[in-house]
Amino acid sequence: MTDSIFQIQNLSFAYHRQVIYGQANLTLTDPGVYGLIGPNGSGKSTLFNLITRLLRPAKGTISLDGTVLTPARVFASVAYAQDSSVLYPYLTGRDHLRFVAKQHGVARERIKLLSDELEVTDFIDRRVARLSLGQKQRLLIALALLPESRLLLMDEPLNGLDPDSVIIIRDLLEAFKTSDQIVIVSSHNLDELDKVTDRLIFKVDHGLSLETVAEGAEARYAKLYRHPRKKLVHHA
Amino acid sequence: MIQLELIKLWRQNKLLPGILVLLICMIGSIEASLYFQNQSVNTAIQYSQTNLAIFKVSADKRWAEGWLPDVKTDYKSYENQLTDLQHRNRSAMTTDALTSYSTPTPYLLYTGFDITQGLHAGENEATHQELLYLHRYHIGSMIPVTIRTNPETAGTNNIPANEAEVFQNLSTRYYECGWWQIWFWAIAGGLLVSLAIINLFFGDILASEWEGSTDRTRWLRLQNETHTKLILTKLAVHFGLSCLLLGLALGLFLLYAWLRTGLGDLRYPVQTWALGKRVVSFYNWMTANAEANYFYPLHIVFIPLARYLGQLSVFWVSLLFLNSTVTLLVNRILHIRLLALLTMVIVPLLGLVLPTSIYNPFTYLKGDWVITNYLGYLLNQRAPVFPWVVGIMIAAGAVCLGLTLVPLSHRGGVHFD
C-alpha cells in the first residue's frame, strides 16, 4: 500500500439538486505540482471550497498526511489562492499581507521576501481597487504562500495575466516541483499547465481522475471533453 | 481581526467624516437655537411694550385721580420684567417672574391673564415650582422666561386662536448653552437623528462583506476567523465606534458651545413625574386644584440637569447597543450593501414621523419621556419606567445578536463551520 499525502475518499456534493461530485476519489502520493482540469462550471472551484471546508460535503472525507481536514487543520496546513474578488478593494496589499502574517504568526520579514520574489513590492502600498488583474493575482499568491502550507490550492492563477505576471507565476510553479508541498492549480490555460506539470487531475463526470499525460494537456482535454461540433445549416 | 476592521473603516474614510457630520448637526442645532431665541426675545419685548402701554392707558382711565398702591406695584413689576428682558438679565428675570407667579394671578408681561388661565395640567403650578427652584439655587432662567408645558398637553390647551402665536412664544424654550442643548436633543428626537448619522457611515458594516456575488467572508474564514467571531468583532467595532464617534463629536461640540455661549448650569431644573402628594393650588381660578393634580398619583418633581444627563448617557449607550445589533441583523438578512445602508438610515428617522402610541416601539425610545417618566404617566405606571425600558433595550439587542449569530446557508450553498 502506498502512503498517500493527500486523499479524497467517496466525496459527494450537490448544489441545487445538481450532483457535482458523487463518490469521488483521489489519492496523491507525491509532492509537487498538479493541474486540475475540467470544463467551465464542472466544479473545480467547488473542489477547492470542499477541501478548505468553505463548503461542507454531503458525504466523504478529505485528508492530508493521514489526518482528516477540519477547519483548524485547514488553517494550519492548507493555503488557498482564491479569485481576486475576495480582496478588499479599499485595503492595500500590505494590509492584506500583514493580516495573514499576524493570523499565522509569520514574521514580517517574510512579507518583504515574498513581495520581492513575486514582484509585489512596487504596488504593495496601493489599494487593491487600483491594481491590475495580474497584480491582484500576484498578491493573492503572495497571501497564499505566506504561511508555508503543506497543501497549496490555486484557482485560475493564470487568468487574465500579462506576460510578465505569467512568467513570474510559471517560475514560481517550477520551483514547487522540487518542494515537499503539494500544489494543485486549476487553469484553462493548458499550454502553461503543460510547461509546469504533466500530472493532471481531470474532473470526469462526477469523479476525479489523476493522470500522467505525456501527450499534452490539450490533446487529453480534447479526448475527454470535446464533442464533435454540429454542422451549421443555413436555412434559406 | 478588530485591527483589520478598524483599518477597513479608516481606509474607507468613515471615521472623520462621521465625526464631522455629527458635529455639524450639533453646531447647527445650537446656532439655530440662538437665532430663534433672538427672534423670540425681540418678539417678547414688542409684546411686553404693547401690554405695558395698554396697562397704563387702562389704569389711567380707571384711576384717573391716581393709581391704587397695588396697581402701582404691579406696574413696577411689569416694567421690571421688560427691563430685565431687554438687558437679558437672567437672574433678575427669574426673581421677577417668581414674584409674579407667587400671586393668585400670575402674569408674564408678554402673555396676559387669558393665556395663563387657559393652561391646564398643572403647567402654571410647574412653572411656579421651577421658578422657586431656580431662585433657591440662584440659577438664571433660560430666556425668555417661559411657561413649563408638558409634552403632550401643550397642544391641547384651550387657547383662543388669535392668541396661539403668543402661546407658542410663551412655551417655546431655546436651549442655548452646551449641556442644555444635549437636553434639548433628548426632547426633540436628537437621539434618533444621531443613530441615523452613525448608520450613514457604519450601517453597512457587515453587508460590506458581500458585494454582488462576492463573499469576502470566504477569505476571512480561511484565516481562522469563524462566523461567530466575525459577527462579534463587527458588533464590538460598530458599538465601540458609535460610542467613540458620539463621544468625540459631543466633546468637540461642548468645546464649541463653551466658547460660544457657555455650557449652562448643570443644576438647572428638569421636570419629571414621580409619585407625590396632592397639591393645593393657591391660584384663584376654579379649576386650579384639578389642573395642579392632573397627573395624580404622579406629581411634577424637578431634578437637577446633571442627574438627567447621567440617565440620558445610560439610555443613549443602551440605544447605541440596540442600534448596533439591529444593524448587524439587518445586514445579515439583506446582504445588499446599499439596501442595508439605506434601511439603517431610514429606520431611526421613522421614529420622528410615526405617531405616538403605546403600540409604536419608537415611543419607548423617546429618551426624554423615559427619563422624566412621562412615559410612565402614559402607561399608567407608578414606578419609574427608566430601568425596565433600558433593560428591554439591552435584552432586545441580545435577541438581535442571537438571531444574527444563527448560521444560515447563503448564496453558493456555502455553509459556515
Automatic annotation (TrEMBL), chain B:
Keyword annotations from UniProtKB, A to Z: Coiled coil, Membrane, Transmembrane, Transmembrane helix
Keyword Coiled coil: yes
Keyword Secreted found: no
Protein name (Swiss-Prot/TrEMBL): ABC transporter permease
Top-level lineage group: Bacteria
Annotated organism of origin: Schleiferilactobacillus harbinensis DSM 16991
Coiled-coil blocks: 68-95
Membrane-spanning intervals of the chain: 182-202, 235-259, 308-331, 338-359, 385-408
